[in-house]
Automatic annotation (TrEMBL):
InterPro entries named in the record: FSCA_dom_sf (IPR034904), NIF_FeS_clus_asmbl_NifU_C (IPR001075)
Protein name: Fe-S cluster biogenesis protein NfuA, 4Fe-4S-binding domain
Gene3D superfamilies linked: Fe-S cluster assembly (FSCA)
Lineage per the UniProt record: Archaea, Methanobacteriati, Methanobacteriota, Stenosarchaea group, Halobacteria
GO biological process: iron-sulfur cluster assembly
Residue ranges of the region described as Disordered: 78-107
Basic and acidic residues bias (residue ranges): 96-107
UniProt source species: Halopenitus persicus
Domain of life where this protein originates: Archaea
Pfam families: NifU
Residue span, NIF system FeS cluster assembly NifU C-terminal domain: 18-74
């Protein structure tokens, strides 16, 4: 039995984007719909307010589209207020995020 698209993307994030965790950032796949091809990833922790978070978001979008045939649309959200909470997923990533509107790729 194969892993879900969300599980495969989570595994990909751990392998392809270790720099996020190494710098105290977090990431979590909030949506991964294999039927529509839509994926939503949220960054948090030290990604919040980081001057290169938009570069990281652009790289994630580009690479997910290239590495997953079924993915057709990627949204990477970068909160401007940081990680609020202790709930995490594999690799110390994830958590509940507090959001605030900032710019195009921020909420």
């Amino acid at each position: 039995m194969s892993d879900s698209l969300a599980d495969r993307i989570e595994t990909w994030m751990v392998g392809q984007m270790p720099i996020i965790r190494m710098h105290g950032g977090t990431s979590v796949v909030r949506e991964a719909d294999p039927e529509t091809g839509e994926v939503v990833v949220e960054l948090g922790g030290t990604c919040s307010g980081c001057g290169i978070s938009n570069v990281t978001a652009t790289n994630i979008k580009r690479d997910l589209l290239a590495d997953f045939e079924e993915v057709t649309d990627v949204t990477v959200r970068v909160p401007s207020t940081g990680d609020q909470g202790a709930s995490t997923v594999e690799g110390g990533r994830g958590g509940e995020l507090q959001h605030e509107t900032d710019a195009a790729d921020h909420f």
